[in-house]
Write a structure and sequence with these properties.
CATH superfamily of the largest domain: HUPs
CATH class of the largest domain: Alpha Beta
Largest sheet: 10 strands, mixed
């Protein structure tokens, strides 16, 4: 179960959309909540039309007000104000590691394009610089009064161990809310398969279709095994194999299955690929209004910033 939640906040009402999920997660005995604001050098007063806390005194007062609001919901929180001369996301990651937090809960901002930008700049960087899972909430002008529910969690899996890195955190989320997991494997069709493999499949469509049908059967067997493992741990789950382009299929599947949350593993690479161009995580975030639980895939021998 999640035991220590780190909640970065910038003073805006949009960022406070993360708080209802925090209240729900912290409603269990033994959960610690840390509210964090990282003061930037020459911080702006407003970001995307929203208030932005700009100094240490203002940050301390703001977080203390939220601490008192959480106390009314029977959630005990501590307040942390840190100063960063540069990379805010790196400071969040270091703070999570120092506190031993096992989940960072934060909200994205603004419209689709802006949400994609902040996802790359903040959440991706936080993941890239550490191993703490990140729970991203879409923004709402209701702020701390927004509704949060988690009844079904959609978990994309591709049959490889790296994609399963998300399963422990997804299982913890399911346990916290008595939710069920929907494990989804998406096998392409001849028309949607990409790269050299796709060119070959379209050159020999009958053979390509036969190979993809075999992969679909293998995926079904694989998901049955994962479902059985989860059931042995007391987590209800079902496995679903579908065909088509992954992002479109997953977005449709979330709607059909009534999934409230996406949960998936990602490489979270930093640098010029900050927007994760082409990745399923970024494309789902760009087109979905659902919360997203993200867990970093660690590569053997890789450093914390890869």
């Amino acid at each position: 179960m999640f035991r220590h939640l780190l909640v970065p906040l910038d003073g805006s009402r949009l960022a406070e959309t993360a708080l209802p999920a925090v209240v729900a997660l912290a409603a269990r005995e033994g959960v610690t909540v840390s509210l964090l604001h990282v003061v930037e050098e020459e911080a702006p007063k407003r970001v995307h039309g929203e208030r932005h806390v700009a100094n240490e005194a203002e940050a301390a007062a703001y977080l203390d007000e939220l601490r008192q609001w959480l106390a009314q919901a029977s959630v005990t929180a501590d307040v942390r104000v840190e100063v960063s001369p540069g990379d805010v996301a790196a400071r969040i990651g270091r703070e999570a590691a120092a506190l031993g937090a096992d989940l960072i809960v934060l909200c994205t901002h603004g419209g689709r394009g802006v949400r994609g930008l902040l996802f790359g700049r903040v959440a991706q960087q936080v993941l890239a610089r550490g191993s703490t899972p990140v729970f991203l909430l879409p923004p709402s002008h209701e702020g701390r009064e927004a509704h949060f529910a988690c009844r079904r969690v959609l978990v994309p899996l591709d049959g490889t161990p790296p994609s399963e890195a998300v399963l422990p955190a997804a299982a913890d989320l399911a346990r916290a809310f008595a939710a069920a997991l929907v494990l989804e494997s998406v096998i392409p069709t001849v028309a949607t398969i990409r790269g050299v493999r796709g060119a070959t499949a379209r050159l020999l469509p009958n053979m390509g279709a036969a190979v993809l049908d075999e992969e679909a059967g293998d995926a079904a067997g694989y998901l049955r095994g994962v479902v059985a493992r989860l059931a042995a741990d007391g987590v209800p789950a079902e496995g679903v194999v579908e065909r088509g382009e992954p992002v479109h299929v997953l977005a449709d599947a979330a709607q059909r299955h009534g999934a409230d949350v996406f949960a998936l593993a990602t490489h979270a690479r930093a640098g010029v690929s900050a927007l994760w161009e082409g990745s399923i995580a970024a494309r789902l975030l760009e087109g979905s209004r659902r919360p997203m639980l993200l867990v970093r895939i660690s590569r053997p021998g890789a450093g914390p910033d890869t």
